[in-house]
Specification:
Protein name: DUF488 domain-containing protein
Shape: globular
Pfam family, one: DUF488-N3a
Distance between the termini: 18 Å
Structural class: alpha/beta
InterPro entries: DUF488-N3a (IPR054495)
Helix content: 40-55%
Number of helices: 7
Number of strands: 4
Largest sheet: 4 strands, parallel
Strand order of the largest sheet: 1-4-2-3
Radius of gyration: 16 Å
Length: 146
């Protein structure tokens, strides 16, 4: 009998505006390094170690802002900055090499294996923008398969 839970991802505005349909028992796990009060009040818990490292967030924001000043739209600037700073590779390295992040990932894996449904939550609307929580979801799912 398979008792494993599921791991999903979504963004905080989708939760606040009823744009996502999750099973009622799903635990909302924030994965934000710098959560606001209203973010904390929307999720069940927040695990800052699973947010991107501050230097990666800062580098991405600087590049994003520079691209926007050149006339690029917000979405295009976000995705271009993501590629230019090698966000995904650097974030995956953070998950694999930072002890707190590794421990937090293993904690999520254990919870899903024990049957808990989790939804990873951050700020970014990923309808068109790339986001770390989807990389994290894929990382957790790979650990579940391994």
């Amino acid at each position: 009998m398979n008792t494993s839970g599921r791991v999903r991802d979504t963004y905080v505005a989708a939760l606040q505006h009823g744009l996502v349909d999750l099973p009622a028992e799903t635990t909302l796990v924030g994965v934000v390094r710098r959560p606001t009060g209203w973010f904390r009040s929307t999720v069940d818990e927040n695990q800052p170690s699973l947010g991107p490292p501050a230097d990666l967030l800062d580098a991405t924001k600087r590049r994003h802002d520079a691209l926007k000043r050149r006339g690029m739209c917000d979405e295009g600037a976000h995705n271009a900055a993501w590629e230019e700073v090698e966000f995904e590779a650097r974030y995956r390295d953070h998950l694999a090499s930072t002890p707190d992040a590794r421990d937090a990932v293993e904690g999520l894996v254990d919870r899903v294996r024990s049957g808990e449904d989790l939804a990873l939550v951050c700020f970014e609307n990923t309808d068109k923008k790339r986001c770390h929580r989807t990389v994290l979801r894929d990382h957790v799912e790979a650990r579940l398969d391994g």
